[in-house]
Amino acid sequence: MSNPFLKQVFNKDKTFRPKRKFEPGTQRFELHKRAQASLNAGLDLRLAVQLPPGEDLHDWVAVHVVDFFNRVNLIYGTISDGCTEQSCPIMSGGPKYEYRWQDDQRFRKPTALSAPRYMDLLMDWIEVQINNEGIFPTNVGTPFPKNFLQTVRKILSRLFRVFVHVYIHHFDRIAQMGSEAHVNTCYKHFYYFVTQFNLIDPKELEPLKEMTARMCH
User: Is 217 annotated as a binding-site member?
Assistant: First the structure.
């Protein structure tokens, strides 16, 4: 295992936080396995994201949101030692885009924060959402809340900002580690999924528009 990126991926200390697991034997676990099998088989990512016949959209979305959270977490975790209060005092995506943090607790108004602080709050916030049984029920038959897709759109929009920051401010680190292909595949998978199900406002996609046009069309 000579690739330094893979070494870091398999080094548990580098994972940004614990992964949310799917319980074996559950419908969600079977969907997760099916989604993984499609990716491992090298299926075209545009086809891999499509809802399998007979499956519930909410279940399919839930599985992917958790998976994207884990993957994006891992990507940020591998470059986080280079994303500091000094190097990234503002959570941004180049000179045109600045992201401010807002939540229901401490930051009720959009607040400018450093990138590492923003990332920490973001990952904590998403983890709370996906571990909340009222939003992401794990028992088959328990209905999803009416505002499920609305919550998912917020989660995915915020995860997209991690891609923006990593690509624009830390791509040299990704390249140095030889992990461009891996990160690009994760990004394409994410992009095809959110556009397939209209889960992200096109305005959010603007910062990476040119790169996406080259990579995904």
Answer: no
